[in-house]
User: What shape does this take?
Amino acid sequence: MNTNFKSGYVTIIGKPNVGKSTLLNLILGKKVAIVSPIAGTTRFTIAGIKNLPNAQIIFFDTPGIYDPKNELEKRMYIYAYNSIVDADVILFMVNATDGLLEYDREILKKFESILNENNKNLEKVNVLCIINKIDLVKDKSKVDNLCNTIKEELKFFKDVIPISALNNTGIELLLDTIIKYLPLQEKLFEDEDAFKLPIKLHISEIIREKIFQNIYQEIPKSTAVIIEEIKPGDVDKNKLIIEAYIIVERENHKAIIIGENGKKIKQIGTQARVEIEQLVNKPVYLSLYVKVKEKWTKKTDFISQLGF
Ligand SMILES: Nc1nc2c(ncn2[C@@H]2O[C@H](COP(=O)(O)OP(=O)(O)OP(=O)(O)O)[C@@H](O)[C@H]2O)c(=O)[nH]1
Ligand SMILES: [Mg+2]
Assistant: This one.
């Protein structure tokens, strides 16, 4: 038995678009969570295991939702909530170019109330403040100042760590600090893939990411992807035939996703296919259809089909 071994659960929280999923993917060294420049990309609480010589860390990436407004967001929130309650270490992420905004403070308040509901409090849990996107701040003294201000004002943070999830800066120090606050115990999971997404969900997440990356409006947030069928090709058995529905809330959303002469949906389809082929390691024929389902984000029975 290795008596110095540490392991535990780490949950990343913070406002939308701050870089939570980017950090998770970087640490795991593979893409498990989808990423886009639009706020509100992550819908599922995605987990991954990081095995190190002296530690095993189970990371949870949460959607940046703290004030659920419809059934969909409520589901998203419940999962995030659970991963917050069970965490050994919480990473609270802020944006280096914004500093600590009112919105960040509201998230902290919400976080505190979640802890209180579970008979815990800020002083007793291990919360690290992560300042991300420091690559965007040219004057480094500004980052130092922000670190100091946060440390002085919010004393419950065990540490404040500046990083760039995009440029891989500060990650070693971050991992060392996380490990410092994990309990001494053996590995929690033997299977590296214990948290792998079911294949259908993974494929629908890839398609959803391409929608976010090609449609620069509010529409992607009220879009769902359902994989209708995955089967081997009739002629080429090595090929996978995938049929997927993109569900939108309105007719005009459908038109935007399809685009002029089908240009947008073709782009989404091509980009998704390339990535799905890497995932399944075989050629893929992907058919995408767009369907309108009014107010689906408010319908619990439909949301249950999405993999929650
Ligand atoms: N310049 C810079 N951009 C970053 C960094 N980290 C993430 N980004 C970008 O910020 C955007 C949002 O990143 P995500 O990882 O999707 O953010 P998120 O916090 O998971 O967002 P939600 O899922 O919407 O809550 C993407 O365009 C990323 O490429 C960073 O360190 N520097
Ligand atoms: Mg995300």
About this structure: The mean pLDDT is 95. Residues 20-21, 33, 41-42, 61 surround magnesium ion (ligand 2) (CB under 6 Å).
